[in-house]
Every structure is written in structure tokens, then in C-alpha cells.
Design brief:
CATH topology: Rossmann fold
Number of helices: 8
Mean pLDDT: 89
Distance between the termini: 31 Å
CATH class: Alpha Beta
Largest sheet: 6 strands, mixed
Low-confidence stretches: 225-233
Order of helices and strands: EEEHEEHEHHHHEHEHEE
Number of domains: 1
Shape: globular
CATH superfamily: P-loop containing nucleotide triphosphate hydrolases
């Protein structure tokens, strides 16, 4: 596989507080890479750095051969990277279909459109005219994923996509992740649940304080590794 994303020694601050201190890793085209870590270690900051919301002070984010570090989020999305944020963050006052159409306007040409989203999330088709804030938590997560797909990403960043979901909805999310990988979409999964990551990832990493990567290997090797993952269940 060819390398799609290469993150090289990025350092990200919120004011004077340094959150990421020299993070480096890569994601191959069409692969699923999971980064495991408890709340507060910097997973969401990493997502925000990659997508352009919190640009790193230094370091490189090379995507498709182009360094996107410091670029505006719109340019990052149009290059082929999309984020499913923690907490879903759908547009509450817009309908399901309006949420999806808005996202499609800022993306790039590609195979994902409304019909494609309806196929993998038929429940959203049934609720296409319903306001997003009236959906269940699981339906909002489906909408957040569908909205990201409307930009036609080559890489989908998923920040805690199973948080707060019932087991049956988690299964739906995992099914969609497998479908996306089969369609050639690479996934960067930022998670706390070890069992979720091991089911879908080609490679697993453990992130500790300030973004330090303490394990980077195959899922089969994960149980043999002695590193504890605090608060990951």
C-alpha cells in the first residue's frame, strides 16, 4: 500500500499549553489505523490539527504528497480529508437532507452523494425531512458520518464514533466502517474502546499524555504488548 497520510513531528498548543509534543505516524491508502487513548491525552487535538481547526505550531501533515499543515480547513477537506467529530455536532436546526447537502457543497467530486448515503443509512432516508436535533443519538452519529462522506474523502477521521451509543448502534457503525474500507476509504479511528479498534483496524497505536505514541503494531500483537491503556475498556 502507498502512504496516504504522513504526520511528522507535529506540536500543537492551546495558548501556552502544549497538547501534542512531537506526534508522528502514517496511514496507508485504504487502511484503517486506530489510535487508542483515554480522554485528555490529545486525540481530539490531533483530529483538529489534521483537519485545520487547530494548526500545529510546527511539524508536517503530508496528505497525498502535499503538506497541509497550517492550511484552512476548507482546503484540507477539498484535498480529501474529512472529520466525524466527537459529539456529532450536526446542524441542529437543519433537516437531515439539508445537513448532507451543505456538506456536499464544500467537498470534492466523487462517488458519494445523497443516494450513496441513503444506501448505507436507510434510516436517514426515512428521516430526510426531520430536523437533526430531533434524531436519536445513534441517528445523529449516522448523520455525522454521512455528512463527512458527502465531501468524498480519501481519509475519514472518526473521533470517538462509538461514544454513548447502544451496542446495536455500535454494530451499525462498525459495519459502515468495513463498507468504507472495502470502497477504498482510509480511516483514522480515535477511540477508547480496545475491542472496537481490534475488530476493524489494520494497525493499532496507543497514545499517552501529550500525544506520545507508546505502541504501534498489528492488532494480533496488541495483547502481547505490556503497555497499559488507562481508562480504555
Amino acid at each position: 500500500m502507498s502512504v496516504l497520510l504522513e504526520v511528522d513531528d507535529i506540536h500543537t498548543f492551546y495558548g501556552a499549553a502544549q497538547i501534542l509534543d512531537g506526534v508522528s505516524f502514517s496511514v496507508d491508502a485504504g487502511a484503517c489505523v486506530a489510535i487508542l487513548g483515554r480522554h485528555g491525552v490529545g486525540k481530539t487535538t490531533l483530529a483538529r490539527s489534521l483537519i485545520g481547526f487547530s494548526p500545529p505550531a510546527r511539524g508536517r501533515i503530508v496528505f497525498g504528497g502535499v503538506d497541509l499543515a497550517g492550511r484552512a480547513s476548507r482546503a484540507v477537506v477539498q484535498a480529501g480529508m474529512a472529520l466525524v467529530p466527537q459529539g456529532r455536532r450536526v446542524f441542529a436546526s437543519l433537516s437531515v437532507e439539508e445537513n448532507l447537502r451543505v456538506a456536499g457543497r464544500v467537498g470534492r467530486p466523487g462517488p458519494w452523494d445523497l443516494e450513496g448515503v441513503w444506501r448505507i443509512f436507510p434510516r436517514l432516508r426515512e428521516r430526510r425531512g426531520q430536523r437533526a436535533n430531533t434524531l436519536s443519538g445513534g441517528e445523529q452519529q449516522m448523520l455525522a458520518i454521512g455528512r463527512a462522506l458527502m465531501t468524498n474523502p480519501a481519509l475519514l477521521i472518526m473521533d470517538e464514533p462509538t461514544e454513548g451509543l447502544a451496542p446495536i448502534i455500535i454494530e451499525d457503525v462498525l459495519r459502515v466502517m468495513v463498507t468504507l474500507r472495502e470502497a477504498g476509504v482510509a480511516i483514522l479511528l480515535l477511540e477508547q474502546r480496545v475491542e472496537v479498534a481490534l475488530r476493524v483496524a489494520d494497525r493499532v497505536m496507543i497514545m499517552t499524555s501529550r500525544g506520545e505514541i507508546t505502541f504501534n503494531g498489528l492488532p494480533a500483537d496488541f495483547p502481547k504488548h505490556g503497555t497499559e491503556v488507562p481508562a480504555v475498556v
